[in-house]
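INPUT
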Amino acid sequence: MAAEIVSRLASAEVALPTPRWAHRGAAGLWSSLWPKLGAVLVALVIWQVVVLSGWKPESALPGPWSVLRRLTVDLQHPNFYAAIGVTLRRAAFGYGIAAVAGFLVAMLVARIKLLRRAVGSLLVGLQSMPSIVWFPLAILLLERSEGAITVVVLMGAAPAIAAGLLTGMDHVHPQLIRVGRTMGADGLGLYRHVVLPAALPALVGGLKQGWAFAWRSLMSAELLVAATNQTSIGQQLQSARNLPDTQQLVVLMLVIFVIGVVIDSLFGAFDRAIRWRWGLGGDS
Amino acid sequence: MGKLLALSEKHALRVDRLSVAFPHDNQLLLALDGTSFEVMRGEFVCVVGASGSGKSTLLNVLAGLDRPSAGRAHVHGRVAMIFQEANLLPWLTAAGNVELALELRGIKAPERRALAYELLARVHLVGFERRRPHELSGGMKQRVALARALAQDADVLLLDEPFAALDAISRDLLHEELERIWKESRLTVLFVTHNAREAVRLGDRVLVFTSSPGRVAHEVHVDLPRPRSLDSPDLAVIAGSITERLKHEITNGR
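OUTPUT
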């Protein structure tokens, strides 16, 4: 009896937040999935209705069924994968450079007060500037479309990543910094052990937004350099328009959409994992 | 000269005409006004004062977090500090928080884990090593903070109202815990509180601070045998006289 009370007391003292997904199996998965599937279904139905209304001929606006059939055909073509591969490689390369550059810029601006006064507001301006406007200049300067594409992706993503990390570092609770300092952390050690881990949620937010900007910029750039021989999603989109091959066009749009959603949900999962670790109720 | 040096070796910390002022609304606000006192090695000293008496400022100066405007504060040896909030790093486990203190002290990785578990056992947290701060109660968090402070292998432990936010039972248990650790490790402790009973429960000596600006107004030696009970009548008498003093200081300050 006494032992039982003790064990109850012990367990009462700890409030263990259990993530909602830990308790739900297939039924839980279904309950989170069906609203999304329902939305897709509604979109497909509206699309089909518009096509059936005869507003435009089927050759100009293909229905969902013919697009899906076309997709299964495309999926058997190596060229289709080559195009996606080229685009993803460009995205990864430009985004990777942007992540490193954004991180370094944020660190420098955080550490050097004068630099913050000088660059802080410029960063915000750069963030709201559509990065595709860098493209003509980059083409002239680099004389290569690959390099110019990288520049556009970089200029799209880096400011958002830097701004995200900078905001995160600005909002670290001052008490945590005091604790770090009393433990003997200073200079870069304080950043490594306290400031950067504390800013991680904001950094992930910046990385996520940076990805969205990078992906948009990349699509714009690929549409503009479609003249080159290199295959890519943007180039295929452009050639589908020129043919015109609207089924292919819509298939490519779907691919672009799905890649965006998948990568965005990876960031979402990362963000939830952090929130759960921190006990911020990230089980939604 | 030799005598002076010998004297200072017995001291764990020495505060000499210390003043601290902060800019506030275009004027300087005096938090500490030329206060002086000394703490001997191994002594447990409590500082009581109303809010605004510069108690926290005093600790921040001793911990090197704030700078004195005038006068000096000497601490012999290393300092560790515990705050009212446990301020554990939320991305680390209980053991991880302790390990970070060990790492910053220069302990090599292979030894850190075992040492952290040992320290958590000292504050009775066996089985909670891998919990994250949000999974721990307020009292448990302060235990981790205590283990983390011990991990710093400090000579002087500064505590800034560490148990003010805890329920009575947790606070009682942590008083015992702190007293035991202080005895075992012969730490020097400077404990800031606004609770006179708590000060008399724990301290060899209680320094009573005046309100804004802060200064030591009065000093009480507590000769009651340890361990003391918060509910003992002897303790209540001493605490009562300190509370009277505090009220007097506050009304005088106005």
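end of record. Chain A touches chain B through 25 residues (CB under 8 Å).
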